[in-house]
Amino acid sequence: MTATAARATPPVTGRETVPFADCEIVPAAREAAVRVMASGWVTTGPEVLAFESEFAARVNAPHAVAVASCTAALELALRSLQLSPGEPVLTSSNTFCGAVHAIVHAGLRPVLVDVDPVTGMPTEATTRAAARSCGGPAAMVVTHWAGDPADVVALAAAAGLTLDRVVEDAAHALGSKHRGLAVGEGVTACFSFYATKNLPLGEGGMVTTRDGARAEWIRSARLHGMSADAWRRYLPGGRWRYDVAQEGFKANMTDLQAAIGREQLRCLDVWQRRREEIAARYDDRLRALDGVVLPHRPDRRDSRHAWHLYPVQLLPGAGPGRDDVADALAHRGIGTSVHFIPVHHLTWLRDVVDVAPGGLPGADELFARVLSLPMYPRLTDRQVDVVCDALEACLTRSTTTGLSP
Ligand SMILES: *Cc1c(COP(=O)(O)O)cnc(C)c1O
């Protein structure tokens, strides 16, 4: 079963619509889900163990622990550091709200780092400035935005942290590589299997780590802090006695999710190659468009962009603004999104981080310009062309006829 075989060509009925996102669950994964449901054991069990070892092998990580979401993965990874309540943790200002909630839920204090509007990620200089502003952070979350691999080693040095105090938010970065190393080979990284991510299961997350003790702490914490293998107690031959030797949470992955994940994982290489083809087609079509800046990507052959997103930037003054372009594309049936609304633009979080909109020039500038175009393996070449034609029409016709289609 190849990843794209199930793709039916949509009928041409007038204008083709292009949704922003897609969630492909391959037939083998649906069959695996049915098999697990019929097995009599649907929660954490042998499928989770198998998914963990297959995932670990995929990203060259010695340990992988499956959890309920990437948000849970980030919280548990931060808690495993055993920091004191309220200690400062650096995070990109251009990230998903859940990643900041994870810091708050771990009892720590998020400190926003401004981003370079070109890369959408913190630089060594902005990281150094944020580290100084909080009197030295206790830890840092590094986000590989869009799938473009961040330089974790350089950013850790800029923050004055050792690598064991860095948690990578790899929600976009399954398939990314930095200088020959897969994202996931680092000390600690957190992945998402949310419905729109590169390995969609619906919901789910994974922590990979080089640190065996940390893996064991998270493995127990994800299931109430119960002693090792407590999940087996209701299986035939299982024992009822267990201990709770550490603080626990409810963040385990089910066998139903893991069985789907194992089959989806077999498609990942094919899917990643298709994402690269789509990015190359967008590049070819959009490179010549005035006022459109292509997404940043690594300039080294031993690094790799995972193309979770294809975020272009629309330069001010070159045509209509980003919001008008997004509306005009929506009117033509083309979905787009913005990654991200910066953390300090969100009502509740802005009070938590104590930064007002306008307070981080790089993130504020990027937010005004950035637009994510559809990017998923089942996107056809024709759909990419439809998106590019529509974007070109928006940008070139706007001056004479306005933006209406
Ligand atoms: C999706 C996402 C998350 C959260 O993932 P969940 O699995 O939905 O909890 C965290 N960080 C980033 C950057 C994301 O895009």
Defining traits:
alpha/beta; 7-stranded mixed β-sheet; 3-stranded antiparallel β-sheet; binds pyridoxal-5'-phosphate
Structural class: alpha/beta
Q: What is the approximate shape?
A: globular
Give the percentage of residues in beta strands: 5-15%
Rg from C-alpha positions?
22 Å
Biggest sheet statistics? 7 strands, mixed
For the biggest β-sheet, the strand order reads 1-9-8-5-4-2-3
Helix share bin: 25-40%
Question: Strand-and-helix sequence, N→C?
Answer: HHEHEHEHEHEEEEEHHHEEHHHEH
Unreliable spans: 1-6
The tally of beta strands, per DSSP, is: 12
The unique ligands bound to this protein are: pyridoxal-5'-phosphate
Termini distance?
A: 40 Å
Describe this structure in words.
The chain has helices spanning 27-39, 46-58, 70-79, 97-105, 124-133, 152-159, 212-221, 255-265, 268-286, 322-331, 347-353, 361-369, 381-401; strands spanning 63-67, 88-92, 109-113, 139-143, 166-169, 177-178, 181-182, 188-192, 205-209, 292-293, 310-314, 370-373. The chain has 405 residues and is α/β, with parallel strands linked by helices. A hairpin with a 2-residue loop joins strand 6 and strand 7 (181-182). Helix 1 runs antiparallel to helix 8 (255-265). The longest helix is centred in the last third of the chain and has 21 residues, at 381-401. Bound molecules: pyridoxal-5'-phosphate. Pyridoxal-5'-phosphate is lined by residues 69-71, 95-96, 98-99, 143, 169, 171-172, 192, 194, 205.
